[in-house]
Specification:
The complex is a heterodimer.
Chain A (H helix, E strand, L loop, with lengths): L1 E5 L9 H11 L1 E2 L7 E4 L7 E4 L6 H5 L6 E3 L6 E3 L11 H5 L6 E3 L4 E3 L9 H5 L5 E5 L2 H19 L1
Chain B lengths: L20 E6 L4 E6 L2 H7 L2 H12 L13 E4 L14 E6 L6 E6 L3 H7 L4 E5 L6 E6 L2 E6 L8 H12 L5 E4 L2 H4 L7 E3 L3 E3 L4 H7 L2 E7 L4 E2 L3 H20 L12 H7 L18 H9 E5 L9 E6 L6 E5 L3 H7 L8 H14 L3 H17 L17 H13 L3 H5 L3 H8 L1 H6 L2 E2 L2 E2 L10 H8 L13 H6 L24 H19 L11 H13 L5 H21 L11 H4 L15 H12 L9 H6 L3 H9 L1
Parallel strand pairs in B: 1-6, 7-12
Antiparallel strand pairs in B: 1-2, 3-4, 3-6, 4-5, 7-8, 9-10, 9-12, 10-11, 14-15, 15-16, 17-18
The chains are: A alpha+beta, B alpha+beta.
Chain lengths: 158, 640
């Protein structure tokens, strides 16, 4: 099973992941219709990095509509289906999300969230800096983690 | 597909890749108006400088004072801004410049431009002048004028923070001026996102004269693409050539400061106020910066290169908080140009200019000019508030930046720019000053590549390395810019010191190409890496649904360049104003350009005029303008 992993230290804040996400799903460029968000600390000294869905499934647990949010067995992604209906709920999914990466799309009037683009995430392709990686959980993650630990411990030493 | 931006019921003419609406703000009467983006202009002049040139040509009376309410400033995006195209995070400011009294344009990256388009506007036209300090808040297809009473006088980062807090929208992007713009320093810049600058030609002074402290934007609108499938293919193709180029060491993966050593080697590092193009005291400057002070790279919206360099100096005399660090021009200006050896003062100076809202090029230029005048005895301690202004003194440099930004004492006359200052001091100072049309020289040396001499002389904005383009990149550094299919000779085969008529042809081609970037409003650094007019044309065609090829796109460049030229002719610009300053045509004294001056400039200029179809005085011939579909401009040119 693969998962999206973020090496925030490499992020340059170009926001390509966001707009490519919106284009992949809606054929339009909009920062309001993306499924991940680049957060930039509003300080000149601040850092930046993408906040992505971890596919934890809390939205699925919270959703009162049967079959509106399901887990894709193949990719492991938690998906919003066409059964999603705003008249049947009070947006429990949005409230349940710990990262703020599920929200109601104003045009389609449905919840939208990361679906791994069916196994070929466009944010990963869009990122020139290898900040977002689509990796098998396990060994590669620890490799990824090692770099982060190195960078951060160096910072502590400084 | 329906309207381009969410929430509008009215029909929008330009549906694809444009937002379709412009914002016109009359500051005198506090009237906010929305108007359609004009298709007749967009189709032949695109956006950015092209659209602005037409608007300012039609709406500005000639010979107005740039700092009066009669002047207008356009903050523009273009058809590719905010799309996924490489380098699509740009915006462009166009106005009549308070430094040169002619056409002024300045391009800038960041996130502000795309956000303006997502807010539903292709551009903002600011006219008139407010009595009280104000800022503009444009969001989701609407706009308000708000009071800026409490932020007047604040620095750029303070302004941004306060406005975002006041609006309660942390994602809002803010364009602002610092104290330098408020005090009408003639080369004050316009900042966005803390550290990105439309720095040159005094846009900040224009906003200051209009009492506009900031323009905040936010929106979640959409930018639609006419032919998504073809667009995606064209985009991929463009991206691949960018990546290929970056992998082979092209582009600005090292930041522009990374070209410092190379410029020095080529004699392209203006030193001691342009006396020469090489200095042997700064060999380890770039290495030092990289090793000790660089924190990370930062990219603008949609960028593949990330040339931004965040830097920090932890302690010492020049301690500087973490902030966008110096790029090449800033570094050269505050080091070799004024014979200052260390990187620390450069980082500090860059930071101070950024928070005060000063153009780093003109600021460092003015300080170096003061050092030269002091050496020659043309100014003394009497004029300089008792300061001893020796070459390369970092403490004096820092003091002068404060003085210029606030226009205190000696800083007041420095803040007037090099032309006005030298005119006040006298003919000796005028002979030493480096400017064309009143714009201070930036830090590329035309002796190192002679096409640059033509570009400096004939650029509509004055002595600028970026509008239309840094042409010496071709002959000096061997970049072909993807222009070989359009008649560019093989760059490595060009003798960079030759002053043949052929140089005018090269200059013309590269300049037209450079102009396009400012009309598409896209980062020019992506032009350095072989994208070429064809790839841009493809992206433009698929995004808008219009039909453009590379040749036609170059013609758009030609059209815009000549329209801005006509604007300048109306302001009184003639051949004499295309002359180069004396000091820069004299032979350089050190480095690889040693003994090489510029001797044949007038002949190259003759050839350039011939290619442009300009008459002996530099006025575009009516036939040429008619061919470029600028009939009304042609009529006006006959009367000149």
């Amino acid at each position: 099973m693969k998962s999206l992993l973020v090496d925030q230290e490499k992020c340059t804040g170009c926001r390509r992941c966001e707009i490519f996400c919106s284009f992949h799903h809606f054929r339009t460029y909009s920062l309001g219709r993306t499924r991940l968000h680049v957060v930039r600390d509003n300080e000149p000294q601040g850092s930046e990095g993408p906040v992505i869905c971890t596919q934890c499934g809390l939205c699925k647990l919270a959703c009162p509509v049967e079959g509106a949010i399901i887990r894709d067995k193949r990719t492991g992604a938690v998906l919003v289906t066409t059964k999603c209906d705003m008249d049947e709920c009070i947006r429990e999914c949005v409230a349940a999300c710990p990262y703020g990466v599920i929200h109601i799309d104003s045009k389609s009037k449905r919840a939208i969230k990361c679906d791994f683009c069916g196994g070929k995430p466009s944010c990963v392709e869009a990122c020139p800096w290898q900040v977002i990686n689509y990796l098998e959980a396990g060994t590669p993650y620890s490799l990824n983690n090692k770099r982060i630990i190195e960078v951060r411990s160096k910072r502590v030493e400084d | 597909m329906r309207s381009g931006v969410r929430g509008w019921r009215i029909e929008i003419i330009l549906k694809y890749s444009y937002a379709g609406k412009m914002l016109r703000i009359d500051l005198t009467n506090r009237i906010v108006k929305k108007e359609d983006t004009r298709e007749d202009i967009a189709k032949i002049l695109l956006g950015g400088n092209g659209y602005s040139a037409k608007v300012l040509w039609e709406e500005l009376k000639s010979k107005i004072d740039p700092l009066s309410p009669d002047n207008k400033i356009l903050l523009m995006t273009g058809p590719l801004t905010g799309t996924g195209a490489p380098g699509s995070g740009f915006w462009e400011a166009c106005f009549k410049s308070p430094l040169t009294n002619v056409w002024g344009e300045s391009a800038c990256g960041g996130w502000w431009g795309p956000m303006l388009k997502f807010a539903g506007f292709d551009g903002i036209i600011l006219e008139g002048s407010s009595k009280e300090p104000v800022y503009i808040w444009a969001h989701d297809g609407e706009a308000d004028i708000k009071s800026a009473e409490g932020i007047w006088g604040k620095t750029v980062p303070e302004t941004e923070d306060i406005i975002r807090r006041e609006l309660g929208i942390p994602q809002a992007r803010v364009l602002s001026i610092g104290p330098a713009g408020e005090k009408i320093v003639r080369f004050a810049g316009i900042a966005v996102d803390y550290e990105r600058y439309a720095g040159r030609k005094g846009g900040g002074a224009i906003l200051g004269s209009k009492k506009v402290k900031a323009v905040a934007v936010h929106g979640e609108g959409e930018i639609n693409i006419a032919k998504p499938r073809e667009w995606e293919r064209a985009l991929k193709e463009a991206e691949e050539s960018v990546k290929e180029s970056l992998d082979s060491g092209g582009g600005f993966g090292t930041g522009t400061i990374g070209s410092y050593d190379m410029c020095n080697e080529m004699g392209d590092l203006p030193t001691k106020y342009g006396e020469t193009g090489h200095w042997d005291q700064v060999d380890d400057l770039y290495e030092n910066f990289n090793k000790k002070y660089l924190i990370k790279n930062r990219a603008c919206f949609g960028c593949l290169q990330a040339c931004g360099r965040v830097s920090e100096i932890k302690e010492g005399r020049f301690a500087t908080p973490r902030y966008g660090g110096p790029e090449y021009e800033t570094t050269c200006g505050f080091s070799a140009f004024m014979l200052q050896k260390d990187i620390e003062p450069v980082i500090k100076a860059s930071y101070l200019c950024n928070i005060y809202g000063l153009d780093t090029i003109s600021t460092s230029h003015m300080i170096a000019f003061a050092m030269l005048l002091y050496e020659k005895g043309l100014i003394t301690k009497k004029e300089t508030d008792g300061l001893e202004i020796g070459w390369g003194d970092p403490d004096v440099m820092i003091k002068l930046i404060h003085k210029i930004a606030l226009r205190e004492g000696f800083g007041d006359i420095l803040g007037e720019g090099v032309r006005r200052m030298s005119q006040k001091i006298g003919v000796d100072a005028m002979d030493l000053s480096l400017h064309v049309k009143g714009l201070e020289m930036p830090y590329h040396d035309p002796r190192a590549g002679k096409t640059q001499a033509i570009a400096y002389g004939t650029s509509n904005v004055g002595m600028d390395h970026f509008h239309p383009h840094e042409t010496l990149d071709v002959e000096c550094y061997g970049a072909d810019l993807g222009l070989m299919p359009f008649g560019l000779p093989k760059p490595t085969g060009i003798d960079r010191f030759a002053e043949s008529p052929n140089k005018a042809h090269i200059a013309k081609l590269v300049m037209d190409y450079g102009t396009i970037a400012d009309a598409l409003v896209i980062c020019k650094f992506h032009q350095y890496i072989n994208l070429g007019p064809d790839k841009y044309a493809k992206m433009l065609s698929h995004a808008t649904g219009w039909d453009f090829d590379g040749e036609q796109l170059l013609e758009v460049g030609d059209r815009i360049f000549n329209l801005a030229r006509a604007f300048n002719i109306r302001e009184g610009i003639r051949r004499k104003d295309d002359a180069l300053p004396k000091r820069i045509i004299q032979p350089a004294t050190t480095g690889s350009t040693k003994g090489k001056g510029i001797t044949n400039y007038e002949n190259m200029l003759d050839e350039f005029y011939k290619i442009e179809q300009w008459n002996g005085e530099g006025i575009p011939e009516p036939e040429k303008l008619i061919k470029l579909r600028l009939k009304d401009v042609a009529d006006s040119m006959i009367k000149q």
